[in-house]
Amino acid sequence: MAEAEPLEMAYISEVILKKRKHKEESIALTRKTQLELGQHGGKKRKVEDIKRPEQLVREFRERELDFIRMKQRTKRAKSALSTPNSKLLFVIRLHGKNDMHPKTRKILYNLRLTRIFHGVFLKASPGVLELLQKVEPYVTYGYPNVKNVSCLIYKKGYGKIDNKRVPLIDNNIIEQALGKHGILCLEDIVHEVANGGPRFRETLNFLGPFSLNKPKEGLQGKKALFKDGGDTGNRENQINDLIDKMN
Questions:
Q1: Quick one: pLDDT band at residue 95, thresholds 50, 70, 90?
Q2: pTM, two decimal places
Q3: GO: which molecular function terms (predicted)?
Q4: Nearest alpha carbon to residue 83 among 33, 22, 126
Q5: How far apart are CA 223 and CA 232, in angstroms?
Q6: What's the rounded Cα separation, in Å, for the pair 178 and 5?
Q7: Residues of the chain with CATH 3.30.1390.20
Q8: What is the mean pLDDT of residues 67-73?
């Protein structure tokens, strides 16, 4: 009986073999990366990042309680709102994360206080004071002096041009943005803000929020009003002491 002839192996060129090996190595490396970072290449979730049901319930109750308290604060008589001692306010956000109701967060965002330890200048008016009353547990405010207005703008100030942050290191930038309003340099900005001038709104629209440093001392970590031994609410002229510690 004749022996079966051995089958000949198909010839595969060396180039194709190298490409195949490279592709297999690439797939293996990609798969390893996906396993390390998660199936879709995102950050690997930690166990502590996953919220328990009781934590979600607690955060929901805190947000609803915040909304109830906000409505209670707005029911105060308008006479309870302090008469402003100055045209200018400086407002600093101190608190607020998961315990805020969406309406509270929206007011803070409308005031451009999107982050903790951000500060903004506002023109004192009954409408502004009413808004601040609604978000009182999360902010502190008062009447900055000219020295601190100047110091904040020179040290922490930046402008916004085409939605981009621009450092105020060149008066040409200021003239380009505000020259049509007669504001040509940093000193003009300080004067307009400190005195609540006729182009106050345009100047503030150009200036971004001030990113302040967390003070090493001076905060109690309490949402109680400043007059009651806490951190929040109206500090009047004592806001200048806090600005000095955060600037």
A1: confident
A2: 0.69
A3: RNA binding; structural constituent of ribosome
A4: 126
A5: 6
A6: 92
A7: 56-145+211-246
A8: 61
